[in-house]
Write a structure and sequence with these properties.
The complex is a heterotrimer of chains A (174), B (128) and C (473).
Chain A (H helix, E strand, L loop, with lengths): L1 H21 L3 H5 L26 E9 L2 E3 L2 E5 L3 E8 L4 E5 L4 E5 L5 E6 L4 E6 L12 E7 L2 H23 L3
Parallel strand pairs in A: 1-4, 3-9
Antiparallel strand pairs in A: 1-2, 4-7, 5-6, 5-8, 8-9
Chain B lengths: L2 H32 L2 E5 L11 E4 L4 E8 L5 E5 L4 E6 L4 E7 L4 E6 L12 E6 L1
Parallel strand pairs in B: 1-3, 2-8
Antiparallel strand pairs in B: 3-6, 4-5, 7-8
Chain C lengths: L4 E2 L3 E2 L4 E2 L4 H8 L2 H24 L8 H22 L2 H5 L4 H8 L25 H12 L1 H4 L3 H21 L4 H5 L4 H8 L4 E5 L2 H6 L4 H4 E2 L2 E2 L21 H5 L5 E5 L17 H22 L3 H7 L4 H34 L6 H9 L2 H20 L2 H7 L24 H27 L3 H27 L1
Antiparallel strand pairs in C: 1-2, 3-7, 4-7, 5-6
Helix pairs in contact in C: 2-3, 2-8, 3-18, 3-19, 5-8, 6-14, 14-16, 14-17, 14-18, 15-16, 16-17, 16-21, 17-20, 18-20, 18-21, 20-21
The chains are: A alpha+beta (174), B alpha/beta (128), C mainly alpha (473).
């Protein structure tokens, strides 16, 4: 019984640890000027660079049409100032960005804009936020903020666990 | 049949027949009491406004239940009576209300770019 | 086996008997227990069917039928019911109530003597998961329609209800649930991982007890509708948790237990042998998870166009690829690693089929983890629609609970990747923990088991890494 509790706790602990391992430092998540929805013209100040590369300003023109964003995967470096112009080519589409929790929407001939500092690393899904047809819930794209450390931490952990299992198997006597 | 068996059968009937009859009945009553007419909105490619012609008597208050049964947003405007709903999202409803105080034929149209043939999404209100 | 401990900590023989509590035991023995839940779900599904019928081709994300079935039901099934309580859904599933009633002539009471209907036996050759495998695979051909079109969900449910009823008239007991229901197979397979089970308590009591009322039935309840032998079965796979054996056992010898997850993966008895059918179920589930993730949570428009059949060629291409991928490519890769395992072990006697089948069960925890990850990707972004559809189930402008205008709000999606990845790694741990045990069961001695395990460990790590890439990379 006691052992079961220990295992439950350690599994739960591992689970939480894994989630924490991937998270950016919580301070940067809320108190930085990142979560701004601004027009393209006002540019928020860049925070002090945390990654190796100097932060750049990156502009993406994302076209939304028929349940697809083009480009569907956009890549930036941590600290970059990202500007997104959302252009709809058929009906009313939206763009909601996971993790940064900001959104915009665009009608044909009336584009939406989004400006933010990419201070959280990892891969974030952006989703259409306006029902645009039957496949609307499946209309997504990815924003990858390099270095994608959460992914690498998880992969290393998996490999470490595999090696631990191997060691255990080989060293086991009975 | 024992008492418990009868209870089980009653519960079965409640869950099936009574539920269906209840839902349909309540909605029919609600429609009759609250709205003059139901108007469903779909892009012209998938059926357009239905009905595309609404006839109402002169001088009476009209309440239209607009149901967007499409997968995209639509809008509604009836310029001659100055009623409009800027956006009715997919799966949502809107209600417009006005007094039909002039006779004639008046166009109503969709005001959200909803499809390639959006411009054809029109209908007529006939007041007589 | 006696002192085998999972992760060196939990004894695999550990059981916590829930039925030792009076209330649980009384509930299990009451004839109201499955019935009331079934009737409640019947009510819910009547509304789902109505919403599917009235919803027609309207937006799925604002339709009660679509949301209840593909968001709430599916996610509950994968996230809680199956990993926690095995075939808990089968306990409360409303679809067989019509044929049950037709066979028994009674809803609550127990009918004595022969059951109604033709009562034919299902052919022996088809008594496996093969039909379930193909039925489920065929169902997923249309997932681009019935997860988004209310009327398509109506048709799918209608077909299932109709086939369940007709099968019940022709074949005995729950033949439909055992060998035909599309969602039965994966529940059975993944129930082997579940943390709960129904088992007999004391084998001695069962040995002395004749006739076996749990199998033939008595005045308190029916003989096992799932055609199991409750007095000795050892695997969750085909136990529908209908609780009839609690009612028919005069010695109170049935128990509902909590247990360490996954212990059924090591069961390989004469009555419940491991089989290629279950191995293929594991492959198909893994393959479908990959294809579904690419199509529904990936950003690639080409795949979406194929799945939703914008062109006939594209759709046929999807069906062909999907079928070949699930039935040939994944089993092929697995076969390759099984062959490597045999090569590494140096053993010449063990048949390759046995290695292939035994190791395929290590995909069960991992597959379940993958599906939990996938389901998190459905519920977290889209769960908020449920508030809308509960208040306005038919899109008629109702507002039953005042939540009809609740806007779409993704919940915790900033954690989605981490949650998916962490789930995957935890279930990967279970996979490798049971994997080596399977290797021990497959090869006669420890050195061979060690060497034979290495390729499989590599494969499981590779699959996990691939899914980490899909979820986070």
């Amino acid at each position: 019984m006691k052992n079961k509790i220990i295992v439950m706790l350690s599994l739960g602990g591992l689970f939480i640890l894994l989630i924490l391992a991937g998270l950016p430092s919580p301070a940067s998540a809320h108190h930085s000027p990142a979560c701004l929805i601004t027009r393209a013209k006002d540019s928020p100040k860049l925070p002090s660079p945390t990654s190796a590369q100097a932060p750049e300003e990156k502009l993406f023109e994302i076209k939304a049409r028929n349940f697809v964003f083009t480009p569907n995967v956009i890549q930036v470096n941590q600290g970059d100032l990202v500007r997104i112009r959302l252009i709809s080519e058929d009906v009313h589409h939206g763009l909601y960005l996971d993790g940064y929790e900001i959104q915009t929407s665009a009608l044909p001939g009336q584009e939406g804009t989004l400006t933010f500092v990419a201070n959280k690393t990892g891969r974030f899904t952006f989703r259409c936020s306006v029902t645009c047809g039957e496949f609307h819930p499946y209309m997504v794209g990815y924003l990858v903020v390099e270095p994608n450390s959460p992914f690498f931490i998880y992969v290393f952990l998996t490999i470490a666990l595999a090696l631990a299992n191997l060691a255990f198997v080989v060293l086991r006597r009975s | 049949m024992s008492r418990k068996e009868i209870i089980a059968v009653i519960l079965f009937i409640l869950a099936t027949v009574i539920t269906i009859a209840g839902v349909v009945g309540v909605e029919a009553y609600r429609r009759r009491e609250l709205y003059t007419v139901e108007l469903t909105a779909r892009a012209p490619e998938h059926g357009n406004w239905y009905p595309q012609e609404i006839t109402v008597p002169l001088g009476e208050e009209v309440r239209i239940l607009i149901r967007n049964i499409d997968t995209v947003s639509h809008g509604f405007a009836l310029p001659d009576f100055e009623v409009a709903v800027p956006e009715i999202k997919a799966g949502q409803v809107a209600v417009v209300q006005f007094v039909a105080n002039k006779s004639g034929t008046f166009p109503f149209l969709c005001t959200v770019w909803c499809a390639g043939r959006h411009m054809e999404m029109r209908g007529e209100l006939i007041v007589e | 086996m006696s002192e085998d401990k999972l992760f060196g900590l939990i004894d695999l023989n550990f059981r916590f008997e829930l039925t030792k509590f009076k209330l649980v035991r009384a509930l299990c023995k009451s004839r109201w227990l499955p019935l009331l839940l079934i009737l409640f779900n019947l009510f819910i599904f009547v509304i789902i069917l109505l919403a599917g019928l009235f919803g027609g081709y309207s937006a799925g994300n604002y339709n009660f039928g679509i949301m209840m079935v593909w968001i709430l039901w599916w996610v509950l099934l994968i996230l809680m019911l199956v990993p926690g309580f095995a075939r808990m859904w089968c306990l409360m599933c409303p679809f067989p109530i019509f044929s049950d009633w037709a066979q028994r002539g009674k809803l609550f009471e127990v009918r004595q003597g022969k059951l109604g209907g033709l009562n034919l036996k299902w052919p022996k050759r088809l008594s496996s998961m093969w039909v379930l495998n193909l039925a489920f695979l065929a169902t997923t051909f249309f997932s681009g329609f019935f997860t988004v079109r209310p009327f398509a969900t109506f048709i799918l449910l209608g077909i299932i209800i109709l086939v369940a009823f007709l099968t019940g008239l022709v074949f005995q007991k729950r033949t439909f649930c055992l060998y035909l229901c599309p969602v039965s197979g994966f529940q059975g397979l993944y129930s082997q991982f579940a943390t709960a089970e129904v088992r007999r308590k004391d084998p001695e009591i069962c040995k002395k007890h004749t006739p076996k009322t749990c199998f033939v039935g008595n005045e308190k309840g029916y003989g096992c509708p799932w055609l199991r032998t409750p007095f000795d079965f050892a695997k969750n796979t085909y136990c529908g948790l209908c609780l009839e054996c609690f009612k028919t056992c005069p010695h109170d010898n049935m128990a509902l237990n909590l247990r360490p997850p996954g212990v059924d993966l090591l069961v390989d008895t004469k009555r419940e042998p491991r089989g290629l059918d279950e191995a293929y179920k594991a492959f198909i589930m893994l393959g479908i998870a990959i294809v579904f993730y690419l199509a529904f949570q990936g950003p690639w428009g080409v795949i979406k166009d194929m799945v939703r059949a914008t062109t006939l060629e594209g759709y046929l291409g999807y069906i062909t690829f999907h079928t070949v991928f699930n039935l040939l490519i994944i089993p092929g890769i697995f076969f390759l690693f099984a062959y490597l395992s045999k090569l590494f072990s140096g053993n010449k006697e063990v048949p390759l089929k046995k290695i292939f089948t035994n190791f395929s069960y290590t995909l069960v925890p991992l597959g379940l983890g993958v599906w939990i990850g996938f389901s998190l990707g459905i519920i977290l972004p889209n769960g908020s629609y449920l508030l809308h559809i509960l208040s306005d189930p038919f899109a008629w402008g109702w507002n039953l609970f005042g939540t009809a205008h609740f806007p779409w709000t993704p919940v915790l999606t900033h954690l989605l990747g981490y949650l998916q990845g962490a789930t995957l790694i935890v279930f990967y741990l279970f996979s490798i923990a049971y994997g080596f045990r399977s290797s021990r069961q497959t090869y006669p001695d420890l050195p061979q088991a060690r060497r034979g395990w290495i390729p499989m460990l590599g494969l499981l790590t590779l699959i996990t890494t691939a899914f980490l890439w899909l979820f986070m990379g």
